[in-house]
Amino acid sequence: MFRRKLSALEYHNPAGFTCRDETEFRNFIVWLEDQKIRHYKIEDRGNLRNIHSDDWPKSFEKYMKDVNCPFKIQERQETVDWLLGLAVRLEYGDNADKYKDSTPDGAKNTENTAKNAEPLINLDVNNPDFKAGVMALANLLQIQRHDDYLVMLKAIRILVQERLTQDAIAKASQSKEGLPVALEKHILGFDTGDAVINEAAQILRLLHIEELRELQTKINEAIVAVQAIIADPKTDHRLGKVGR
């Protein structure tokens, strides 16, 4: 449970340290005071360094009071953790210039992820070649023109991701087998007086319903695509502008 702090303090055995071993624990306290905390002057550390003395627990208890440790000597794990925290704070204070400009690995990964997530951010939208290329793609894919070429490019990207990837094309190419329909279960709502015409009318109505469903699906996809564009915090769809 102390490995991270011990590693930060460059302790020689961060993975194997245990405060249950009395000798190891006492040596650890001496190391911590000598190398990191340094609360006592060198000449005042004699009693703490005498780890084989029967009076060592009393010396350690006095040390805890002197450094204002809030735990009791019996609460060994809590005491060790507190002393390690104190040592880390002091270590940072001694090397503030060394650490102030350092960036955590997690922050670096987050920054790289953000850059990768928005590949269009560094494009020169005023470049004539860029505008010509976007317009050509928009015409080819039948995407409506927009005053902002970056918005058009984002719309192109969404269309390509949803419709023109290999998976999307393979899925669209798969033949769909229709399910058998029991016409007698679908009420026509009127009677022509001819059973054959009634059946044809039922079929036409079902086909019309299927077309309406496909149309609604396309409308929903269009709404999602538009929302993906205008949801960009840099995009003001009311002004037709991107950025400030």
Describe the structure.
With about 240 residues, this protein is mainly alpha-helical. It folds into three domains: about 1-100, no CATH class; about 120-175; about 185-230. The protein has helices at about 5-10, 20-35, 45-50, 55-65, 75-95, 95-100, 105-115, 130-140, 150-165, 165-175, 195-230, and strands at about 235, 240. A hairpin with a 4-residue loop joins strand 1 (about 235) and strand 2. It is elongated.
What distinguishing features does this structure have?
244 residues; mainly alpha; 2% strand; elongated; RTRAF; RNA transcription, translation and transport factor protein
Tally of individual domains: 3
User: Helix fraction?
Assistant: 55-70%
Q: What is the number of beta strands?
A: 2
- Gap between N and C termini: 49 Å
The structure class reads: mainly alpha
Largest sheet: 2 strands, antiparallel
Secondary-structure element pattern, one letter each: HHHHHHHHHHHEE
Low-confidence segments: 113-118
Outline type: elongated
Rg over alpha carbons: 37 Å
The number of distinct helices, counting runs of at least 4 residues, comes to 11
Average pLDDT reading: 75
Strand content is: under 5%
Major sheet: arrangement of strands: 1-2
